[in-house]
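A common beginner's mistake is to predict each chain separately and then try to dock the pieces by hand. The better habit, illustrated here, is to supply every component at once so that their relative placement is modeled jointly.
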Amino acid sequence: MANHPTTQGAREHTYDAIVIGSGISGGWAAKELCEAGLRTLVLERGRDVQHLKDYPTALNNPWDLPHRGRLPHTTVRDNPIVQRCYAFDEATEHFFVKDAEHPYVQEKRFDWIRGYQVGGKSLIWARQTQRWSRFDFEGAVRDGIADWPIGYDDLAPWYSHVEKFVGISGNRDGVETLPDGEFLPPWEMNDVEQHARGKIMAAFPGRSVVQGRCAHLTEPQPVHLEQGRGKCQARNLCYRGCPFGGYFSSNSATLPWAARTGKLTVRPHSVVESILHSDASGRASGVRVVDAQTKQATEFFARVIFVNAACLNTNLILLNSKSRRFPAGLGNDSGLLGRYVAFHNYRGSLRAEAEGFADSYYSGRRPTQPMMPNFRNVRKQETDFQRGYMVFFSASRPGWTQGNSTPGVGAAFKEKITRPGPWGISMMMQGETVPRKENHGRLSTDRVDAWGVPQLVTSIDYHDNDVKLMRDFLQQGEEMLAAAGAKKITKNDDKRAPGLDIHEMGGARMGRDPKVSLLNRWNQLHSCPNVFVTDGACMASTGTQNPSLTFMAITARAADHAVDELKRGSL
Amino acid sequence: MNRRDAIRHSSLLALAATLGVTLPVRTWAALPATDGWSSDDEALLTLIGDTILPATADSPGAGAVGIGRFITTMVRFCQPPGAEAGVRQVLRELQQQSQERFQRGLAGLGTADRESVLSSFEATAGSRSPNSFRQIKELTLLGYFTSEVGATQALRYDPVPGAYRGSVRMADSDRSWAT
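With all components supplied together, the output reads:
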């Protein structure tokens, strides 16, 4: 039973703002709202994770790990979903939700990868940070797949705002399809990548190869030092939490920054069951929380609520927020809440051997790789599939692992496999998927989780368009690798399920028309304007970029608007 | 235990003891023995591992990091049930082939003959599923190159590189990075 506070209790449970979720977008909401002077409560369903203190494996050498990074087969057996995630291993497993901890119903197979802790998935993200270009917004509108109420010009100043604080390394490339940002010095390409870049750009006019942009401090600025963060040390052990604060996370940056204002309260172990709606005022009044450990229900109240629970959980909370006014979920007049979920298509990849460069090597472990901004259907529809894809590639020389496929034993074998092997190039895709009404999440009618909240049913799948797009990538990738002089090119479709990209977006999409969208141009629910949704759930289309930077920019922009509206007395 | 087994037993343990003389602190030998694996089997795995990756001019071999115990630990805890039986089977067959070709077990062979037994076994094991010899070899490589000795002496280990340099000229003698 909910613990309905007395008047005194209600006062103690009342804040200016509530932020649901402490991940990459929730951290930004907290920072911006606290800096504006709002007393802000951040609700996090998982445990607390303090920067530095709670990174138990961050300084481990390979030999310090009991199974050298490998997981016990019992962990693999018990976690068929999360064990498929590339970043889940012996050194990082404590930052991932185990399958049994939060069950859901897969009407269609969906690998839902989650991080329930203070900081959320900002501890375990891939840290690649590209701006959307105007073509990503306009193209989706042109194709009739989204009703974006904002464009690049609306976001550009907010990209700059977050980039300066986050610290983004990158080169100013002047490419219209991947706008430059506020960059720290870029990471280097190695000799083979430089060579491939030149060959590909010569053979395919109009296609660009740029060095990846990522949230790593290559040259910390005063604002980063003030956060207590230092230079990235090129260890590439990021998923364990960084002891140098070399990459951006809520834990290392936004949350401590917000805490310094004295306005922040973070409440871990707080599962948000629903958002409370006051039919009298037409506004949300607060949230109902179930304590993750005691299962005790409590309510908290605020004038403005930011929902940043990560795409699918944000949808789940909104769907479960039923009232007389909103019997189908908060703000769900259109009936489309939970629908038009999309993701990124990672199925295709290529591998090849690169000849030569036998005396060339590299040192350090780089947290990014060269990228090719989308070159398909940019200015007009040109192919037999909709939208496009970003290409990533990298070149490297195998170390001792080449011994696994090298016959032989003994001293000569050992000598051979301890020297760098021949160069290889690998290439992967990040394809836009078209949001479709049938791809959705909804509440289970018969299953609840351990906190009494209905389980999520996922019904999200590929479409023929995704397969066509992947085939095009594989063909173009093969041609580009051949142009780069690579040999023994092999193509692969790993047929992975949606979800493993960990780029799920939509369900509460922004739009101009309330009949076909949930959120307005400021991320407010059309019909409940003091509720802002600024995580992946708000996305009307997916673009081909890694999405977190855009979530951060959208969040800062929406928070600024919320503060304005509060000052104006209109919320 | 018959006489032949007794000789094999003592020579294996003696060999293992030789290999283990310089065991650094942080090796698998510091862990408890894996349940169900005899010290003989562990010593034989150590011998096989040390044959795959022997001591060379600049670095000790896999025997020096207690590779047998690493392999038994990993097949028990990190590989699917059934992997252990496959590894035991390979041990039996290797001993059998050693007996057939040289009239003694692996521990009684000189380096060249032991390598020969392993190499010809590897050449014919490729079509097996699961390929338990390959599992032994992969675990030997994993255990050795992620050990302190393997990472820092057989390879180059830089825990805190500080930066990435994309174009570094290398000499033929330069070793790979451990990570």
